[in-house]
Amino acid sequence: MEHLLEIKNLSKIFTLHNLGKKIHAVSGIDISLKQGEFIGITGKSGSGKSTILKSIYGTYKIQEGSIRYNSKKYGPINLTTATAREMIYLRKHEIGYVSQFLSVMPRTSARELVKQSLMEMGTPQEKADWETEKMLEHFELDKELWDSYPATFSGGEKLRLNIARAMVKRPRLLLLDEPTASLDLDSKMKVKVLIEQLIKEGTTMLGIFHDLEFMENLCDREYSMQNGMLSNSISY
Questions:
Q1: Are 13 and 75 in contact (CB under 8 A)?
Q2: Which of 18, 36, 45, 151, by CA, is between 20 and 30 Å from 6?
Q3: CATH code of 147's domain
Q4: How many CB atoms lie within 10 A of CB 163?
Q5: What share of the chain is helix, strand, coil (3-state, %, to 5)?
Q6: Nearest 5 degrees, angle CA 158-CA 89-CA 68?
Q7: What positions does the domain ABC transporter occupy (predicted)?
Q8: What is the number of domains present in the chain?
């Protein structure tokens, strides 16, 4: 398998049973990523961008097509037919996902959340402690918040924590769903620095963005999405 990720003819339909209606979220999506590539997808809200990422991550089950991923552990694997155990392993060890929204256990501190991401990969405790503090410092999360529960955080603080959790793992494939949506300029630059670092380390990325300026000099290719379909890609 030449590519790290190959999406072919991906289609997803949502059925609204109470209205007897079907919505075609995405149709005929074809995307291929080589190791270390960063592809960006732009488009209006509701055009189907997030559906692609959630289908890759296994949050959505698709009706048609295939999503082939070249796993370090399993070799070439079709994520659309992977078992629950395989997907759990891949999420813990190989595929990261950054959402605009933070979903966590209610009584888990910010420090514990980031540390858990490392510990579940088998990182020794001392190194996990050091990496956790380094990441929290990078995103300038106030030290007084490190041992607080994220439920009390602002939207921007939650998003920075969410990004920290995903990036600290240095995944082979990183899915970015509007990672800078509610961040100020300084925080956006912090994200950009880490993305550039991960690119140098060989992480492959697929990201959704509204902020076109942020994407400059980051993406290898860009797709525009409209009504569930992709336009031809633009290479940089």
A1: no
A2: 45
A3: 3.40.50.300
A4: 26
A5: 35, 30, 35
A6: 100
A7: 5-236
A8: 1
